[in-house]
Amino acid sequence: MPRQAQAPLPATSRPRIRLLRRHNPSVLILASGAMLSLLMLGAALAREGTRGAQARPARIAEPIFQATPLLVESVHNAARITPDSAAAAPPPQAPAWAVHPMIFNGRVLRPVRTIRMKVTAYCPCRLCCGSRAHGITASGMSVYTNGMDLVAADTHVLPFWSLVSIPGYAHGRAVPVLDRGSQVKGNHLDILMPTHAQAMAWGVHYLEVTVWTYAD
Length: 216
Ligand SMILES: [Zn+2]
Known about the structure:
It is built from 5 helices and 7 strands, in the order αααββαββββαβ. It is α+β, with helices and mostly antiparallel strands. The protein folds into 2 domains: 53 residues; 137 residues, Beta Barrel (Barwin-like endoglucanases). It has a 6-stranded mixed barrel with strand order 2-6-3-5-4-7. The longest helix is centred in the first third of the chain and has 48 residues. The N and C termini lie far apart (93 Å). It binds zinc ion. The site of zinc ion has 7 residues, from helix 4 and helix 5.
């Protein structure tokens, strides 16, 4: 059959086919190279994933204190509320504490003020609480109250059951003042930790502590 009799390909498609054919080998090499590196990356990620999964149970087994919180907290996105964000300029519609509420004992809180405080840490041991340490705070509540997330303060500054949030403690949630001590005077907080090692590791910090009250 004469060549002219064939229906010619549309002018636009012809160069595209030639181009594809000419570049096909290199395109294939590039594509297979990319796929290979993706597979290797996938394998590496899978290995990381298994390693992470194996490491996790060890961490879960670590806490000795499985304290039953007497005060049940259901905090949604509480970590987002920091004293900084609470102190920032109010949003146009509603205050930050109303949008992402800080909750204690099932009730919404609102910030009252921030105080710059010396923050030290203690644990229920005899070194920290003396030879008469018996697991009961000065307020009469057990050290296991609120999952051990509680603090000692000068009750002239912050009376018992005042609620405070301390950056870096209890995931930034509001915790109650349930204890006091002869060494805890003025703008000084002593935060309770489950172990002596954790209390020692905290050291001394000077932090902006937010005081909260019930919003209802
Ligand atoms: Zn201790």
